[in-house]
Amino acid sequence: CADGAIICPGSYKGHLQGVATDATKGEAASIFWSFTVALVKTDLKGQIVKQIEVPTHHGDLTWHDGKVYVAVNLGKFNEEAGKADSWVYVYDENELALLSKYPVQEAVHGAGGIEFHNGHFFVVGGLPAGYEENYVYEYDADFKFITRHVLKSGYTKMGIQTAAFINGFWWFGCYGDPRVLLKADENLQFLDKFDVDWSIGIAQLS
């Protein structure tokens, strides 16, 4: 941001899996950070407002209408179908109290990221070696499965970690080797791949 980096203080057993802000209601006031086994809420100066411990593996997250939605996999990542256990956990934005859980078992390689756009939720995640495309799983507002989108991105190691819809485009951060950023249009048609590392979170401030 204009004033420099925003630092999330503290030390956590996991690593940063994703970030989200409440910017869709206007100028952002809060940042939410997912550290695999911890959720943290800070203000825009990096002051901790609330933090909680959570089950591993909490991944990327999104904010919508006063709630924080986190992609969670309680099983294995990057394996063929049958070894993942994919969920979305929903938290209150103020106290980070757990409100509900929704199964998203269609994300068969492990749910790792989530974004809300145009009334629907979109879940991304792991990918076994050998695949030449990524997958985006679309759900309605009640997490009823709608469809699986195929992203013609080529193989990215461990799939997609972070997802965001900003300024009319989809952005997907990948660990990979090298770590890459994928760009798609609103209909999830693949557009481009960039050799930059946005794998630990993509979020909007305004």
Structure description:
With 206 residues, the protein is mainly β. It has no helices and 15 strands. Strands 1-2-3-4-5-6-7 form a 7-stranded antiparallel beta sheet, with no helix packed on it. A 4-stranded antiparallel beta sheet has the order 8-9-10-11, with no helix packed on it. It is globular, with a radius of gyration of 16 Å. The model has no long low-confidence stretch (mean pLDDT 96).
Assign the structural class, choosing from mainly alpha, mainly beta, alpha/beta, alpha+beta, or little secondary structure. Answer: mainly beta
**Roughly what percent helix?**
under 10%
The first-to-last residue Cα distance is 10 Å
- Tell me the strand percentage band: over 45%
| Sequence of secondary-structure elements | EEEEEEEEEEEEEEE
Identify the overall geometry. Answer: globular
> What summary fits the major beta sheet?
7 strands, antiparallel
Helical run tally? 0
Poorly predicted runs of 5 or more residues: none
Summary tags:
single chain, 206 residues, four-stranded antiparallel β-sheet
How is the topology of this model organized?
Elements (H helix, E strand, L loop, with lengths): L17 E4 L8 E5 L1 E8 L4 E17 L2 E7 L12 E7 L5 E6 L7 E7 L2 E6 L8 E6 L5 E7 L10 E5 L2 E6 L5 E5 L5 E5 L12
Antiparallel strand pairs: 1-2, 2-3, 3-4, 4-5, 5-6, 6-7, 8-9, 9-10, 10-11, 12-13, 13-14, 14-15
